Each structure stands twice: as C-alpha cells, then as structure tokens.
Amino acid sequence: MAGLTSEGLVIDRQPDVVENLITSYKEVEGLENISVRDDEKFGQQTNILAQKIAELYELLQAVNDSQNPNKAEGTNLDDVGAFNLVARQGATKSFTSTQHFTQKAGFNIPNGSILENPSTLDRFVTTANIGVNSSSCVKIEYKVDQVLDTTLYRVDVNSVAYTYTSDADATSLEIITGLKASLDAVASTEFITSLDLVNNYLVIEATNNKPLAISTPAYLLSNDITVIGYVESQVVGSINAPSNSVTRMVTSSSVVTTNPIAYTQGRSKESDEDYRIRIISSQSASGKATVEAIQDDTSLVDGVTTAKVVENDTSVTDAAGRPEHSFETIVQGGTDTDIGAAVLTAKPAGIQAFGNTPLVVTDKYGNDRDISITRPVSINLAFEVDYTEHTESTFPPEGAALIESTLIDKVNLSQLGQDVIPITYFGDIISAVGSLELLEIRVQVIANQGDAPNPANWQTTKLSISETEFASTTNADVVVLQV
Predict the structure, then answer these.
(1) Is 380 left (phi over 0), alpha (psi -120 to 50) or beta?
(2) Distance in angstroms (rounded) separating the CA atoms of residues 427 and 302
(3) Which among 147, 150, 179 is positioned nearest to 164, based on CA atoms?
(4) Residue 1's pLDDT is what?
(5) Is the distance from CB of 272 to CB of 73 less than 8 angstroms?
(6) pTM score, two decimals?
(7) Is residue 402 a contact partner of residue 478, using CB atoms and an 8 Å limit?
(8) By three-state DSSP, how is residue 313 classified?
(9) Alpha helices by DSSP H, 347-398
C-alpha cells in the first residue's frame, strides 16, 4: 500500500493506480460492471486520471528524496547540508602570497596586473597595488654612489645599523666588501648577503620570503629591488603552478617575476558525491563540540586549504605536548581572526584549544576569549642528487634542471605531516628525464633556506615530518650532480 511506511515512502506506479481505480469503481453501486477497455471512453479517462495520480506520487517521491543526503542533488543537497550545518565547499583559485617582482625603487605594479606561465599559458592576477621599495623587500642590490676616503658607510636592516669606514684609498669593491663583512658579523636568521663582483653590487636577500626593511642614509644607491605580492589564478579550480613557472608579466614587460614556491592549488566546486560523503559523516545540528565538527567548521573558513584537529582526551600531557583534555587545530590558509571565531563556535565548553599561535577572540556577548591554533611549521630541507645518464637513451639537454624542478615541486606540494622518503621521488624524476642508470637522493634538515648543509647529516632514508609541519625546499638548497 502506498504511503509512508517503516521502510520509507512507498508509491504506486500508473498500472497500480489503474488497478486501484477499477477496484474503487466496483465498490460503487451502478459501476460494478463498467467497462474500462483502452478503446472505450471511460477506459481512456481512467488511464488519464491514473497518469496524473502517478505523477503526483512521483512528485512526492522527489520531495522525499530531496531531504535524503544519499539521493538529493544540486540545490536540494545544499539544503540538506545547511540543515546539518555543513556548507558545500565553493570553488577557489590557486594562489601564492610570495610571488617575486623585481624592478627599480618607486615602480608600482597596479592591482589587476596579469602574469602568465609561458609553458601552460595559465594566467594569474595581482589583487592589490604592489609598490617596489626597500622598506619591504626580499632582495636588494646596492652599489656605491660616491667613493669617499675615510668615510662611514651604513646599511640599516630591520632597524639595525651595519657600518663600515673606508680607508684612505677607498674603492667601490672595498666598501661593499666591508659592508658585507659587517652584515655577516652578526649571525642573522633574517637575511643572507652576497657580492656581485661583475657589477660591484652588495646583495642582501631575505630568508624564508619574510620582507626586510632596508635603508641607507647616504653614499649608496639601490639597483634592482625584489618585493613579494599576493597573486591568484584568473579562473577557479586546481591550476597547477610549480615553482619558478609563473615568469612572464603580460601587462608590464619591464618587471621580472617568478614564484620560488609552488602555488597553493585551488579547487573546483565540491561535487555532489564528495559533498554527500561529508554531510553523511558530519555532525548534525545538535552534534557540535566534536573533533569532526571543529574540523568541518574550520575547513570552511575562507582561504583555508588544510585543516586538521587532533585531541588529547587523556588525563596527562601527550607526546606532542598537548595538555590533558585539550585539542589542537592545525590549519593552513585563512585569517587568524576567522579561524579563531570558527574554533570558538565549535569547541566544547571548558576544553582548552591548544596551539602555537595564541589568539584573542571576541564572543557574541562581547567577551574576549583566549583561543590557540597551530600554524604549521616549514621544515627547510637541503638535497643532494647524484645521477648517471642511461647510455642507450636520449637524455634531455635540460635534464639536470628538470631533475631539480621536479624534486622541488614534489617536496613543496607534499601534504601536512607527510614524511620525506627520497625513494618515492624516483618515479617522477625518471618520468621527467627518461631512463637513468643511477639515481641517488640525499636529504637533511637545515635551519634556514640557503644554509650550508652538514656533510655528516645526509640521509637517504625516511625523514619524519610531524603532523604540525610541512616539508619545503628551494632552488638554492638543491644540488644536482652528474656522476
């Protein structure tokens, strides 16, 4: 019988409706022997009526299915998700906050400037004006504007003065070498220095792409300055932009640009299939204050690319340092303010939100609440790669560069907490360059990008990365050698 049953909604199809109508006719006095043949008027009317009733049943079935996460689609599935406080993940763009732009001081890169990957023709765009100046740069070249004897020369980096006094027979090379020695005398984790002996430039470069404030009172003149800016893909979706691939400025040919770190890939709008799985596995409206709920709410914050929640439900501090009865929200992307608000809304009362980044979040009653989250730590890695070409196959002229770029992209696209296992990179490298007779990859952790590796620390075995860390490397830290 049609209707809502313990097994769910049961509906009648048109043949069933016709049969039920005939049964009903026979229960009416005077219609017991009425003919409902298809070639007769009353039979035709019965079929038309049965079709319309069957369509109403089908509409009832569709309405019922629209509330079932296993069957709902499109907007109806969005409504089911909203009821369960699980929003569909929208499409996002690929982005980086560390695109490099090199020009002279005072140059302005306008909002909406277009960049391009020459190999794939994928295009990207700046989202704000980017000024080229020494007060916030990641690299700068200085030359001596005036060569003066017995004169104090000075460079200020992050409000710290570094000086050198020229001798009685000063030269440009002497002055920049003396300033470099002054800068190098203090072991800084903020910058490294080098000399361009062809042009007699002193080069100061930030580590970890953290901008420096640099100035000189007199006698020195800046040449090229490199700054960083936020750039995103023109279209949504998973646009792949490996390190050093976005290298062309479409709207300004005078600007040199590159991305030392691969872009964070965007995503397409979450499919019904994936969204359905999250709804079913998520908490209902009454099921907040759980690990799943906190992780779901955090992952939906704008800009968040990775979110993971780990709890310590024991009565002692765990091996990772989490206090008893606490949880840790590990998150990449998004703003601290938005993430803190999401964690506060979803967290259980009286349970500590532990992490390496303390925040103060104002609740809806105007009270300031202490919330901590964890921003993952970049583990800087150095690599040494030895290879031997296969004598019976063609090795590309740019083979060494392909090995380097493939390794860097593989490392920088690894997931949060993903261990570094050198042998797992072999397949991608061989696919990029063809057959090799020998391939060996050695890795070690270094404190800062550009640091000299310790020969005693190389390893070819697994290098563990904790759940609050991610692997990272740069061109400067990868050496590829043909043996």
Answers:
(1) beta
(2) 35
(3) 179
(4) 59
(5) yes
(6) 0.55
(7) no
(8) coil
(9) none
